[in-house]
Specification:
- The protein is mostly helical.
- The protein has a single domain, classed as Up-down Bundle (Growth Hormone, Chain: A), CATH 1.20.1250.20.
- It is 77% helix and 0% strand.
- It is built from 19 helices and no strands.
- The protein starts with 9 loop residues before the first helix and ends in a 19-residue tail after the last helix.
Length: 448
């Protein structure tokens, strides 16, 4: 007698995944809004290279705090309360930035926004991974990256539309963030709690109710058995637990991938689009138009990544992305150094964005949500994503300083070298994860 294949309620799964992934939209909003607002903020607050980098990177410092908070909240109270809190913090901080009377208040509010973004950046993909059956988990976690790029694109379009409305238009750019955060907060109220967290909290009955909405009886029974087996002997975990010998390989891979996703350098292109194109003589209107073009390309190739991540697999996409960026950066640096025409520079910027969007951008988040054992997923994800945001801060803080010393082109030679070494690391240390349950993956990345 053959074993019956489980049946999934795809409409319900995608629905709750999209609601959770609105946290990614907030990430995309705050990530992109600075690119359009920066020319106005420089003028308003008279920013030098140091302050330009610190103001941009202050979001990342808040994200680090948010990740640390989210890890504890996610394990103690559940994924859902953490998502609600992140939405509320983001709404308040958006208004705080819009009405900031001076630089210190603005930076403080951007730091607070980072707390909300950091919580969402960890909890949204974790939640989606925990409610998604293995055959469609990669695609569903990539929905979080889709909402990030939608946030980037829509924000860039709004910034471009508002650009000629006066020197204080940046206040509207930031204040409009209250709209998606309010929608996110309302949506999260209707989400079920993660069944894996419910089992861990001893609420097996509620976990079964949630799983019954997701899939057929065979899926519910096998998933509950797998979860309970993975939690045998598990205790409340501290941050010290993620560096124990058994889980250290998975944690080190997660941390390295998180840092590499930032040190690959692409977020310099997102955050400093105006600076890069100003260096080849583009007007302010052209600079802001380039942010829109970047957003469109980012969206198209993220959708393509969603179609490929469960077919081609995680590892091939990561390898293509890392070596592809390395080559493109060398060519882009040469173009910037030789003050090439704007359209040619734009072509290579968009090539870099397309390679990143189909590989390192979504797949890193998918892997971070997958590779950690159930009993430490909350704190381990927190450690990896704290590392990601720390790397993001270093990247965006140092770029204006490096560009002022080396020229705008100089840092891209460095990013090309980092991408090459990232390619070698993925080749040697990253295993394929597609099609395996979260419980099966515990044997893939852990020491024995």
């Amino acid at each position: 007698m053959t074993k019956q294949s489980p049946v999934f309620n795809n409409r319900y799964i995608i629905g709750i995944s999209f609601i959770s992934a609105l946290g990614g939209y907030l990430f995309g909003f705050d990530f992109a809004v600075i690119s359009g607002a920066l020319p106005f903020l420089k003028s308003t607050f008279h920013l030098d290279a140091w302050w330009e980098g610190f103001l941009t990177g202050s979001l990342a410092l808040g994200c680090i705090v948010g990740c640390l908070l989210a890890g504890n909240i996610a394990d103690k109270y559940g994924r859902k309360p953490g998502l609600m809190l992140s939405a509320a913090i983001f709404a308040i901080s958006s208004l705080g930035m819009a009405f900031a009377p001076g630089l210190s208040v603005f930076v403080t509010m951007r730091f607070a926004a980072g707390i909300g973004v950091g919580m969402a950046s960890m909890l949204s993909p974790m939640y989606i991974a925990e409610i998604s059956p293995a055959p469609i988990r990669g695609r569903n976690v990539a929905i979080n990256q889709l909402t990030i790029v939608l946030g980037i694109l829509i924000t860039n379009l709004v910034n471009y539309t508002l650009a000629d409305k006066g020197p204080d238009v940046w206040r509207w750019m930031f204040g409009l963030g209250v709209i998606p955060s309010a929608l996110f907060l309302i949506g999260v109220i209707w989400l079920p709690e993660s069944p894996r967290w419910l089992v861990k909290a001893g609420q097996d009955g509620k976990a079964k109710q949630v799983l019954n909405k997701i899939g057929s009886t065979s899926f519910v029974e096998s998933t509950l058995a797998d979860i309970e087996k993975s939690l045998i002997g598990a205790k409340k975990q501290s941050y010290r637990a993620v560096f124990q010998k058994a889980v250290r390989p998975a944690v080190m891979v997660g941390i390295t991938l998180a840092i590499f996703q930032q040190f690959c350098g692409i977020n310099v292109v997102f955050n400093y689009t105006s600076t890069i194109f100003a260096s080849v003589g583009a007007s302010l209107n052209k600079q802001l138009f380039e942010t829109v073009a970047i957003g469109v390309v980012n969206l198209v190739f993220t959708i393509l990544a969603m179609l490929l991540v469960d077919k081609l697999g995680r590892r091939p996409l990561m390898l293509i992305g890392s070596i592809g960026l390395s080559v493109i950066y060398i060519l882009l640096a040469f173009l910037l150094q030789s003050h090439a025409v704007v359209w040619l520079t734009s072509v290579f910027v968009l090539l870099a964005i397309s390679i990143y969007a189909i590989s390192l951008a979504p797949v890193t988040w998918v892997l971070i949500s997958e590779i950690f054992p159930n009993h430490i997923r909350g704190v381990a994800s927190s450690v990896a994503i704290v590392s990601l945001w720390g790397a993001y801060f270093i990247l965006v803080f140092t770029f204006p300083i490096l560009a002022s010393k080396l020229g705008t082109y100089g840092p891209f030679y460095l990013y090309a070298a980092i991408c090459f070494f990232g390619f070698l690391f993925i080749l040697k240390r990253v295993n394929e994860t597609k099609g395996q349950t979260l419980e099966q993956l515990e044997n893939n990345f852990t020491a024995h």
